[in-house]
Design a protein that fits this description.
Elements: E1 5-16, E2 19-31, E3 36-40, H1 47-54, E4 62-67, E5 70-71, H2 77-87, E6 88-91, H3 103-114, H4 119-132, H5 148-160, E7 166-170, H6 178-193, E8 197-202, H7 205-208, E9 213-218, E10 221-227, H8 231-240
The chain binds adenosine-5'-diphosphate and magnesium ion (MG).
Adenosine-5'-diphosphate binds near residues 14, 23, 41, 46 and 48.
Length: about 240
Amino acid sequence: MNSLVKISQLTKVYQTGQVTFEALKGVSLEIAAGDFTAIMGHSGSGKSTLLHLVGGLDRPCAGSVHVNGHGLHTLNETELAKFRRRHIGFIFQFFNLIENLTVQANVELPALLLEKKDKKAIRARALALLERLGIGNQATKHPWELSGGQQQRVAIARALINQPTLLLADEPTGNLDSVSGEEVLNILQQFNTQGQTILMVTHDALAAARAKCVLFIHDGCLVDSLPGGDARQIAQRLAELR
Ligand code: ADP
Ligand code: MG
């Protein structure tokens, strides 16, 4: 089996005071290089939890994540931070840009944290990405001067600057109007066509339909899968999960 990402029996229990909550109950899945996989589920089903564990932002209670042969459980915090910079790009619902940095500086930051050496090459790479995403002319602005759709494109550029093994997207269209959302999905699909492996979580059937494969998560368990393409069929399957 030649999987880029192998997720085995992931369990996550949150503890708040005396209350425990099992957000993931033994989730297993594999992702091959070049896949575009969507995880579809209602609010609270465990989507963000799963994405955080896959990206090494949090650790599971049991089970394992392997990305490109790296077992994340074998890495200490410093190694995990390095792993994230090298291998993972993250896109979030609320963009999570740094407000007091310019667009260009936001995009350059992950590359500077990873290498530092060739600032000129990093600057050129960032600008090329921004231009490719149609916002090269926004490079010197700050995030607050941009529309939501433009901000998400900056976040995509930032996520891709280190050519990550895996791009993770958490409700990337959740805070966008439908036109900007469509543009962001077009961009993700284009990068996937050129080989970028993507794992996206969403509760939006139109977004999930852009993936090649849709997995359904319900109460912390993967319960079904469908091919991408048919948003109505995907919406209908989700509606049955209540
Ligand atoms: P989704 O992204 O699908 O909406 P999440 O993964 O964010 O779901 O959350 C799954 C469940 O775990 C929810 O019931 C949520 O309230 C709970 N949860 C998430 N994060 C925490 C946390 N840090 N502490 C306690 N409970 C949490
Ligand atoms: Mg979420």
